[in-house]
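STRUCTURE:
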């Protein structure tokens, strides 16, 4: 007899069982299809297995010849010239110039090795199933000659790079300051460019165009450096005769020309002019060595340092190192000379003014002139002259500042003690 309280039929459980069965059946169907496809792929052992792609393109089923042709075509499409641009200039580097070659053999072998690389048939089957379900992508790579690339980039840099040009000052026929702007240089970082191309070249993903951005190289003297310069702060001239000594003077004067001295900077004559040697173009001429007249390389250069010394004093700059000659010089008043010698004696001054000063030095005819250009406002309307007191062999030098006809500052500089020159050595021998 049937129970009055019969159990309700579990439709939910039945539905779950049916869904699970259907899912299992579907999975089995997919697995069966996949297994059939893989089986077919394995059977066709001279074909790329199911799921292998190149650049997103399915290449499964291709023969080795077909696969190679695919990668050859792909390499031809990707191996185009590198193109560069800089302003209106354009440059190109062809694949042949850097020996860029696609690794076609590697890509072809890689495509065929999927699912066949193991000695175990089970492992190969597992790999083939994974490849069929998840896919595998073969990337076509390339090699190139880095040295050839560097050579080509350096050749491009030679056309892009330019040396900076200093801003400079001159004087016109009326003694007015003329200023000329500096030019910013350019320098291409070829090492950085080569490094940035390594990945695109090896992966054959070449950019359509590379815009070159060379680094700016500021000149040593910029336009802004000379902008405030508007007058001659101080100038001084001495006379000389041409010959070996005059040639030495002209050489040193040229080294002194067009030099900028910024506020708080200390200027060294020896550092700026350089050593007076035969290789630098200097000749033997008259000098004083140990109190005696003599002949040595670079004779006459002290006239340049002495002329500079006077221009510096008249410009209101600060001498920091200065030595008088053994005896008074013929080309300048006693107490106003400044002797120099390589590695021993130097003339130095410091710019204590608010703005830059600019040195000009010239030899015209038989006259050496040194100008100190600067900013008129730095002297606050004052003018400067030099006064000497004392004897010819023991002079004292003063720098006098005047404004509106009145002395506003009287600065003692130094007292020199000279000696009589000793006879030249050849005279001693007589």
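SEQUENCE:
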């Amino acid at each position: 007899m049937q129970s009055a309280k019969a159990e309700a039929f579990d439709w939910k459980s039945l539905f779950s069982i049916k869904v699970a069965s259907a899912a299992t059946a579907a999975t089995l169907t997919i697995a069966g299809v996949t297994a059939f496809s893989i089986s077919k792929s394995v059977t066709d052992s001279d074909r790329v297995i199911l799921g292998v792609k190149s650049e997103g393109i399915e290449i499964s089923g291709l023969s080795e010849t077909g696969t190679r042709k695919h990668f050859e075509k792909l390499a031809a499409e990707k191996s185009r010239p590198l193109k560069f641009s800089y302003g209106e200039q354009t440059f190109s580097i062809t694949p042949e110039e850097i020996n860029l070659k696609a690794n076609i053999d590697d890509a072809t072998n890689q495509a065929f090795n999927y699912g066949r690389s193991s000695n175990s048939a089970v492992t190969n089957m597992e790999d083939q199933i994974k490849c069929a379900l998840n896919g595998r992508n073969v990337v076509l790579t390339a090699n190139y000659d880095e040295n050839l690339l560097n050579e080509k980039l350096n050749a491009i840099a030679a056309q892009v790079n330019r040396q900076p040009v200093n801003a400079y000052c001159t004087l016109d026929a009326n003694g007015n300051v003329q200023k000329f702007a500096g030019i910013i240089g350019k320098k291409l970082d070829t090492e950085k460019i080569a490094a940035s191309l390594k990945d695109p070249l090896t992966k054959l993903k070449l950019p359509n165009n590379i815009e070159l951005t060379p680094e700016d190289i500021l000149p040593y003297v910029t336009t802004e450096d000379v902008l405030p310069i508007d007058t001659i702060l101080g100038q001084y001239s001495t006379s000389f005769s041409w010959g070996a000594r005059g040639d030495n003077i002209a050489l040193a004067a040229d080294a002194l020309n067009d030099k900028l001295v910024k506020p708080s900077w200390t200027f060294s004559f020896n550092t700026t002019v350089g050593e007076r040697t035969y290789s630098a173009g200097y000749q033997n001429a008259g000098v004083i060595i140990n109190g005696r007249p003599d002949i040595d390389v670079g004779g006459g250069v002290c006239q340049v340092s002495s002329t500079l010394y006077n221009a510096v004093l008249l410009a209101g700059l600060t001498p920091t190192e200065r030595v008088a000659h053994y005896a008074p010089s013929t080309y300048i008043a006693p107490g106003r000379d400044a002797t120099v010698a390589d590695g021993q004696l130097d003339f130095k001054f410091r710019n204590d003014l608010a703005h830059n000063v600019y040195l000009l030095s010239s030899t015209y005819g038989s006259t050496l002139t040194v100008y100190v250009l600067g900013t008129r406002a730095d002297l606050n309307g004052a003018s400067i002259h030099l006064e000497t007191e004392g004897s010819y062999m023991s002079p004292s030098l003063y720098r006098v500042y005047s404004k509106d006809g009145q002395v506003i500052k009287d600065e003692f500089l130094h007292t020199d003690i000279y000696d009589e020159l000793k006879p030249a050595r050849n005279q001693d021998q007589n």
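REMARK: The longest strand covers residues 406-415.
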